[in-house]
Write a structure and sequence with these properties.
The complex is a heterodimer of chains A (190) and B (149). Chain A has 8 helices and 4 strands. Chain A is mainly alpha-helical. The longest helix of chain A has 19 residues. Chain B is built from 6 helices and 8 strands; from the N terminus they run E-E-E-H-H-E-H-E-E-E-H-E-H-H. The longest helix of chain B is centred in the last third of the chain and has 17 residues. The radius of gyration of chain B is 15 Å and the shape is globular. The chains are: A mainly alpha (190), B alpha+beta (149).
């Protein structure tokens, strides 16, 4: 069962997070960043059979998450709370409750040459999901009738890795497409 | 680290069996690595056909190499004929890569074969590789190709 196609790459996560924080036009939250990661990887896998950032997707309460990405953000928020230097290209501000706001750190800038065109296209598609209202986003990630991701999330076991084949199948079922060639690439794992 | 080969577990492939990955490009905190698969399994052939459907130059998707000729292994390992699947190259942090077992070193001729396949692949599918990596691959070929005098 291919559930991790590439190990989580924290450097790539930081680069993509900075891209999002620069493009979105408002501070991004942990929720925005983990969902952006999930959808960037999903769209790139559907196109190329491999993720952009990597890590296994697991089912959590608020949708699919790559745990090391979530814990990286939590660690940055903790460092902020403790008055320590926050590592990475994003600065942290306190938001409401346990929500933190991330903005490009002083001097941090996106180098678009670090991304392939296919990676940029996957991030642009993921950006559209991040722009959804929280209610619509929750529908997208939870409701089987709302999206292929909601279908996969509903069928998955809590806190267990999600099989990439099930994501491809759910996408094909929703959009009446055929991604069997992508499943041939998933069989190589990585 | 160019040419260094590490044995990474590939989750989801053959019960998570480890496969060799060679460093083609060393970056500041990451490496761009290419995985290898033995040439006796059907998965690689299926993957090559899949890349054909996707418009890739299938001759450059994977490099069939006799590793005995191009890899110096550490004691206890011997090379086999394998496909280095260039189209599956990915970035991994150095921290994680070096936590895996070091297997050996690919020679310059082998690296140039892989780098040239990357270049051809990037020509047939320009969105496959970032402009930054493409430049670095070009420089690698230049630095490893003997100059004519």
């Amino acid at each position: 069962m291919p559930n991790q196609l590439m190990p989580f790459n924290e450097e790539q996560f930081d680069r993509c997070s900075l891209w999002l924080a620069t493009k979105l036009g408002r501070p991004v939250t942990q929720y925005d960043l983990v969902k952006f990661h999930v959808m960037t990887d999903i769209y790139h896998v559907l196109q190329y059979g491999r993720p952009v950032i990597g890590g296994a997707l697991v089912k959590w309460k608020f949708g699919p998450v790559v745990k090391p990405a979530y814990f990286r953000l939590t660690s940055q928020a903790n460092r902020f709370e403790q008055g320590k230097t926050v590592i990475g290209p994003l600065a942290v501000e306190a938001g409401r409750s346990n929500v933190y706001k991330f903005t490009p750190a002083q001097g941090a800038s996106v180098d678009e040459d670090e991304f392939s065109q296919s990676e940029i296209e996957a991030m642009e598609a993921a950006l559209q999901i991040v722009r959804l209202s929280f209610a619509k986003s929750q529908g997208f990630f939870h409701e089987p009738m709302a999206s292929f991701v909601g279908r996969v999330w509903t069928d998955a076991e809590f806190d267990k890795p999600i099989d990439w084949n099930s994501i491809v199948d759910a996408y094909d079922a929703q959009f009446n497409t055929n991604h069997q060639h992508i499943k041939a690439l998933l069989a190589l794992g990585v | 680290m160019d040419g260094q080969i590490y044995r990474l577990n590939i989750r989801g492939h053959f019960s998570n069996l480890p496969h060799p990955h060679v460093v083609l490009i060393e970056l500041e905190k990451e490496c761009w690595v290419i995985p290898a698969f033995g040439d006796d399994g059907p998965e690689v052939q299926r993957a090559i056909r899949a890349y054909d459907c996707m418009g890739f130059d299938t001759a450059s998707v994977a490099v069939h190499m006799d590793n005995v000729q191009h890899v110096t292994y550490k004691a206890g390992y011997k090379g086999i004929r394998a496909y280095w699947v260039v189209a599956r190259a990915f970035k991994i942090t150095k921290k994680l890569l070096t936590s895996y077992e070091f297997l050996g070193q690919m020679d310059d001729v082998g690296l140039v074969l892989l780098a040239q396949a990357v270049q051809r692949l990037a020509e047939s599918k320009p969105d496959f590789i970032s402009p930054s990596l493409k430049k670095k691959v070009g420089k690698l070929i230049e630095s490893l190709t003997p100059k004519e005098t």
